[in-house]
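The pair is quoted verbatim underneath.

:::
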Amino acid sequence: MELDRLQVAVTGAQGRGIFFTGSAGIGKSRLLREAVDALPAEKYAVWWIAASATTAAMPFGGLVQVLPVEQPQGLSPAGILRWAVDVLQQQAAGRRIVLAVDDAHLLDPPSAALVHLLARSENACVVGTLRDGEQIPLPIRALWTDGLVDLAELSPLAPTETAGLLAVILGGPVDGGSADRLGRLSAGNPLLLRELVHAAQGSEELTKRYGIWTWTGRLELAPSLTDLIDIRIGQLSPGVRAVVELVAFGEPLGLRLLNKAVDQTDVETAEERGLITMVNSDRRLDVRLAHPLYGEVVRRQCPVSRTRRLQAHLAELLEGVGTRRREDLLRVAVWRLDSGTAQDPSLLASAAAQAFARYDVPLATRLARAALDADGGFAAAELLATILMFADRPAEALGVLDAVAPDTGDEERLSRWLTVRGMVSYWGLSQESTVEKIAEQGTRLADSAAQARIRAFEAIMRLHRLDAPAALRLAQGVLDRPAASVAARELARCTIAHLQAVQGQLCRSATAVDLVQAKAASWRAEMPYLQLAVELARGTRLALSGDLAGIDRLVADEFADLADAGDFRLGSGYLAILRSYAARLRGRSDAALQAALGGCAILATSRVYAGLAQAERAQAAALRGDARQAAEAMAEADRIHAPSMAVLYPWLEQARAAALAAGGDLSGAVAHLHQLVGRLRTDGFAGHETLALHDLVRLGEATAATGPTCSDDSRRTVAQRLAELSEQVDGELPPLLARHARAVADGSPEQLLSVADNFMDLGLTLLAAEAAAGAVHLLRQRRSPEVSGASERLAVLLGCCDMVQTPALRAATPTLTDREWQVARLAADGETSRAIAEQLFLSARTVENHLQRVYSKLGLNGRAELKAALRAMPGHNGTAAN
């Protein structure tokens, strides 16, 4: 858009030029160069001027590249300017003059005056760049204030643009969290982003898993990047350096607090030079560095002794005015720890808990370990072990716990130790026997609150192990105990919410999750990881109900931001899986696969959701018709899926069927889905059963028998079972799935098109396209004149998708030979048989024979219907596969 605007300013009838302003490295010079290089030399006389600090010291130094070396003597300053304009006009020889001035803020006064004068000429325009925060010569500033040129700010890269540029630099996609962190650190500056990537590559902090690049977050600053930042910071007086250093170690730092430590004049100077910026935060004015990388460079260049002194000084300043905000305690603890003045284990432990509640796993780990080392005792050990579990270090967590095994007389402490140890051994190490052990140990406790905590953990473990009846009984028992803590009660409620979702009680599940979330302030400090149970229950409900808007809200809320920023991989990984699921149902196979691959990369060292991520990868690959990758993903899912997460089996088995179908084994896929339906029915997972049954409908099995034999020795069909479940499972989706099944069973193209419209109302583009494809297939078989309109509707739906190749879509697409496809495409474009014959080196009779076979295969009555029919073929790109 900026390039178009610049070209219009040069070539348009009205514009006389434009200047772009922005930070160094944001791409101003490249934009300017690209625009002027594209101008034809026969129409434009282009002069490129690169102003610099060196040329700024001499008259006309900025224009030394374009003016003659010898200047006439005895002319007044005004006369020299007129002479210079005449020289440029003579050199242009009637062409339009284009003067491109890079870094125009560095022009010497005579050059700046000449640029202004030239901009007033009828056949000339000036374009240029300016750097933010620099003094601009008055003649240049007058260019836009007098209306001679436009002034535009070149904005930093948007997040999507940052991700795109990273993919170009690295030759492959980057996971969302890494792209966001690199984008924030570079502040959307392309040059700095490139330098950051090269530095990370050089230090091996960028790794590639499953085709996705991931950044560890550790930053090694290359000399070129440090030099670049040093140039932008410039020489600092001792007072201004003190301001920059304090803000670098303390940002965001309250302005009142900063003014207590340094001279206010130095603060103002730092702001004027663009080194710091003021940000409103509630009722406080905070000070931050103008660019995130300033802090990286300043902190690394600061001597260790001064660093520790500054950090201790910051802690004293904030303690002196009182830690009024909740995050102030965390900041003081970090400063104390980094300065070597941390002596209070309770401060460190409280700060670690606060960091963990914000899902900043690396910081929480460091603070909790420091608290334990400072004799923080059992509380610090319990916290550290919990954090290590979520940092994928379960063996280390067990070592920490076993070193502080409590006395059996303190039942409250013992229950906490047992549950944390049980969580680590069950989910971290996949030791299924943990469930029985924790149950047996819980019976020995007499304290009702301690026992309720044990039972709440046992309940969710049993749910994940697929012992649903026992899980429900235990969870309800916890809710019935008045002595149970808030955290224990809400953990039990999450177990019930998850169970309700898979059973199809979606409304009750939503209510339960809302109740848990409403009490988050009461449980987050004690059990922040409970949020994972909340999101799993909520995500399961949203996926089963086809609520894509709800998934969008979930992956965009505060938890998602905190999880990505804090390296909370279980949270980030699960949300990536949900992103992929939503993209898949929208028919966006590329976005689905990238999200699934990102989830696989994030969860590569975890066992909790790793198998689920691979299953979603298999689904996304199958959607694209990539049978090889789908099979590979399922093999990986089988290898790494943890038995402690058996409750996720419906998702894995649906993915297995999709992988089989993508590989052409439709009978195997159908048989597998029938087995899955039977298992789901036995387990009472009606919510999942509706989706598995609908997968059978999508494979053409709407009239197939399913379930046990009835009293009259008959069995229900898939369509009948879906109709039955539509009255049991909550939400808009189950009745719609049942209608789809009935339309397929009845062979009704009218009903299929109606169902397609209803799917689109829910945003389920993929299912809408499949329903419409079924209608087109039936209409073609009947050689109905309505096939053209139905094909147009299918084409519109497929236009909302990208590369999608499902069995339902392929079944509605007759196979054409290469030659038939070529003939059909040319005929649809309006070519005559003779013209087609000449292009394809065929006889006109052969062309007509090919066309007749095309019409027969597609169920068409002639060329009038051919174009819509071809557009409605998924992936219509002229290959034999179509």
